[in-house]
Amino acid sequence: MLYGLSLLAGIVLLTLGGEGLIRGAVAGAKRLGVSPLFTGLVIVGFGTSSPELVVSIQAAINHQPDIAIGNVVGSNIGNILLILGLCALICPMTVQPQALKRDGMVMLLAAVLFIVLALNGSLARLDALLLLLGLAIYLGWAYWSESRHDAPAATVHAAEAEEVTQLPMGVPMIVVALVGGLALLIGGSQLLLYGAVGVAQAMGVSEAVIGLTIVAVGTSLPELAVSIIAALRRHADVAVGNILGSNIFNIMGILGVSAFLQPLTLVERMATFDQWVMLGASAILMVFLYTGLRLSRGEGALLLLGYAAYLTASFTVIS
Q: What pTM, to 2 d.p., does this model score?
């Protein structure tokens, strides 16, 4: 019971902390005159991954590589199969062709790069630097390509910033939101990791399974919130863009930082099963989006069925 409450409390604190951090950062960016394009592309797109970042860093420092890597791999699987599946049921998902060609392909290539770097069963500091270099190149390319007035994808990232509902914030409130959000993220990550390890032991499953499922879904709640709100407002391209950007940052940014701080070892089940599910989900999403530049309700239902099958396999067959 104690472990379950700790896990739940950690998820709540991470969600609140991520919200506070994003809102404070967006408000601060507006006061500083940062462009809506950059705000949507970097602050919102990557800010929604802040719970994953803090949890994976804490897990890496605590020598819990199964949770550090499982959190990222599981989040990417959940982002596609669960979150986009749910969003497509609410509203068929459309996507800008330019964003699909760039962000979709980078997401797919990031998954392939991770698999290649982890072929020896671990992510070393050199691997981490390669991932971070890839992220820097992607950000530079994305900002350059979207800075042109004829780039429709720029309006998607600008709209992404607007999905974060803002109340007027003065400088003191911005500081409170940023500092408070960070404190909640750190505290929430500690509770989440404590509860996750305890739940895994109580259920008789590995830390990898908990990291890939419960922890991954819990840290993905900011992406779920932004994407669901966008789908309800019929801003489907914003929902898709948020997930593509989040998956890119999860692999190249979060794993890059985590593995640089502490080299990570890949557990056998992730090497033989989960990383291939992540790559397969990314490839299927690309196929769905390329056919008509949309994700239909039927395709969304298939994604949800795929996630249900993945969870069933994780707790019964592969655990």
A: 0.86
